[in-house]
């Protein structure tokens, strides 16, 4: 603050503008309200002074540096030029404590850190380009900010690469990792606790047997799912088995599922993803697939985080149209008898490939999130 006033007299709004333009908040925590607090503090110490009466309140008072303020700023600047930056990054605390986390959580955290650094670096470069040409001092500040961000990015990328190579011993398979959720019995309903899962997903409406939107959604999902698998293996050294197709089904009138009025159904079709898959990776996969084939639903793909919590589920063996008796038993007998009610969309997990499996042998998990009445 003192240095900005050494440059020239300024009022509070001028200071806020130059702080924003120069990207000062990328390397110091200085809020807008703190500016006036600091101006008062510097004035009380005799380091700055108002040049005259404010035209419209304190916020428009212009301040200039006094002789003692100029001397103090010069001395502090000489000292700061030779002082090394202390190593206080929070990521160091995180790495020190990382042995207490599952490897997948550490990979996810570092992957998100990498995305955040990439975005912040782009923001600093954009702020710099808006103000070119810059005076040497301002240019040096941006140089330093970019160098620190690039160094952090390089460290994070290297650490992430080392960790993923160490942990990529076998493919991640959601059906094996969460076996209790993907292998329910077929004779009785079971209650399970479903944790947070991430999916690539497409929303739509209509009869899945006849709707072009449904067919486009499935084609887009599988195209992107395999693109993500190959990209993950190539760039992160982490491979995974593409999960089964899953669907969330909903309607304003839930009875349309029992009556099989499919034209009234709304759906979200999805394929589960490992925790390390990011928004940027999904967008990259969408871009890659779109270069090879025009699929209308590619632009609708999104990364969905779903936490269903307590659920009741059962394995249905047979045609999809034969689900009605099980759903009727679930809705009208099991839930009321156990003091439960709906707490989310009807969820189906398709363990069989309908193109290659006879209808009588199709395996589908029917899952319903529930809560106590």
Rg calc? 29 Å
Order of helices and strands: HEHHEEHHHHHHEHEHEHEHEEE
Strand order of the largest sheet: 4-6-5-9-10-7
According to DSSP, the number of beta strands is 10
The percent range for strand residues is: 15-25%
Mean pLDDT: 88
Question: Per the principal axes of the C-alpha atoms, what is the gross shape?
Answer: elongated
Residue share in helix = 40-55%
- Describe the sheet with the most strands: 6 strands, antiparallel, barrel
Ends distance: 59 Å
User: Which regions are unreliable across 5 or more consecutive residues at pLDDT < 50?
Assistant: none
The SS-based structural class is: alpha+beta
Account of the 3D structure:
The chain is α+β, with helices and mostly antiparallel strands. 48% of the residues lie in helices and 20% in strands. The N and C termini lie far apart (59 Å).
List the keywords:
20% strand; three-stranded antiparallel sheet; 10 strands; single chain; six-stranded antiparallel beta barrel; 373 residues
Q: What would a concise description of this structure say?
A:
This protein is of the alpha+beta class and 373 residues long. 48% of the residues lie in helices and 20% in strands.
Describe the protein's topology.
Elements: H1 2-7, E1 10-11, H2 12-21, H3 32-44, E2 48-50, E3 62-65, H4 67-82, H5 90-97, H6 103-131, H7 136-167, H8 174-177, H9 179-182, E4 190-205, H10 212-236, E5 245-250, H11 255-258, E6 266-273, H12 279-292, E7 302-317, H13 324-337, E8 340-342, E9 346-350, E10 363-372
Antiparallel strand pairs: 1-3, 2-3, 4-6, 4-7, 5-6, 5-9, 7-10, 8-10, 9-10
Helix pairs in contact: 6-7, 10-12
